[in-house]
Specification:
The structure is a homodimer. By secondary structure, chain A is mainly alpha-helical. Helices cover 56% and strands 4% of the residues of chain A. Chain A has a single domain, classed as Hypothetical protein af1432 (Orthogonal Bundle). Chains A, B: It comes from Prauserella flavalba.
């Protein structure tokens, strides 16, 4: 997995001399983010027998925002919500993906991701570094309607993939239907209708044996 | 490659009964677009030894729009430009990717892509089918500042990947530096500064022998 100590990809093949320095910083960042395409998630694709990567996932969320925005409990700025999902996983280029059901990794996740944000967004010109960092902070804090809806998409999308896989990561050892329910509670906080869809899929998945029955190992702190 | 005759992915594992029909249409579409992650482009990734797929490419363009919008020749609505790039390649789920330097495939491209758009967007509720289809038509027609900038990103991104690969698809047989220059002219039409960057990279790539020298086989009709 790449770390902040890695050299930016563009260092291996620097841009020609003479380009404006602001543009060189922007292109260095835009080349570096190519690495997001190599960060694997746990979720299986529906369309091919392999795991999804973060870039594909981020694109899928962007499209979900445009199609499902009408279900937001509060009015949202759709364009800004798309911006949030496009940047929300960038820190994983340096911090790696922390699986939703990996409680140990989640203990160090916040610190690792903050350092990664400093390193990655720091490649940009200062004004843009501040702007994208603020978007990432907004997403993480879930303090705005846009951030809450973006987070709901981030939780609903793998649920749809797990449904299509007849289990997927629901079959992770130790995970029960109640674990899944508590992790997906944030969907309903952003959208009553989509929260109901999430619950229906989990209930039906439990009935079909695609996830261990609930009622043990619930996780009350998870979102 | 999938064709419009394929059954939607969700047909293999239908959603539980009782969900609102509008939501079922939307989720059927959102499951089906998982296939975009399997449509391979010619461009090599910079971060891994494999070709890029359309979903990764679309995400990369969305991020480029947010970072490079300041260079647009005309004022653009950034959020809408992001929407355009998020949907711009969806038709390739059924029509396949037509490589930029594949003149034969490009003869039938328009018809194949229109049929694909009918089939894919037709999965959505009518109002949303019309809206996403209109975005795709807008992108293709390049009649708005947003569409022109989106198209410029679509041409600049593989150019950056080719630079990072020290040639990449520039090495396609029959392609010369002049072919590349004419294909990339639309970058300068949307942004003078980014057009200058594109020309600098092509000129320097030609000087380094990463693309055949220009002056023969130019293609005056390409964008």
């Amino acid at each position: 997995m790449p770390t902040p100590a890695d050299r930016p990809l563009l260092d291996a093949n620097p841009l020609p001399d003479g380009l404006p320095s602001r543009l060189v910083e922007q292109l260095t960042f835009l080349a570096e983010v190519d690495k997001l395409k190599t960060v694997l998630r746990q979720s299986p694709l529906a369309a091919a027998p392999r795991r999804e990567n973060d870039a594909e996932h981020s694109w899928h969320l962007a499209l979900m925002v445009t199609v499902l925005a009408e279900y937001a409990n509060e009015p949202i700025d759709v364009g800004h919500t798309v911006e949030l999902v496009v940047v929300h996983d960038l820190v994983e280029i340096y911090a790696g993906d922390t699986p939703l059901y990996d409680d140990e990794g989640r203990l160090t996740q916040e610190q690792r991701e903050r350092e990664a944000a400093d390193a990655l967004f720091g490649l940009l010109p200062d004004d843009q570094a501040r702007r994208l960092r603020a978007w990432w902070d907004e997403f993480e804090a879930r303090a705005t309607p846009e951030a809450r809806f973006a987070k709901a998409m981030d939780r609903l999308q793998p649920l749809l993939l797990n449904w299509l896989a007849k289990g997927g990561t629901w079959r992770t050892p130790g995970v029960t239907a109640d674990t899944v329910r508590s992790r997906k509670a944030c969907v309903g906080e952003a959208s009553a209708e989509l929260g109901a869809v999430a619950r229906t899929l989990i209930d039906e998945g439990e009935r079909r044996g695609w996830v261990e029955p609930g009622h043990h190992n619930p996780d009350p702190v998870a979102g």
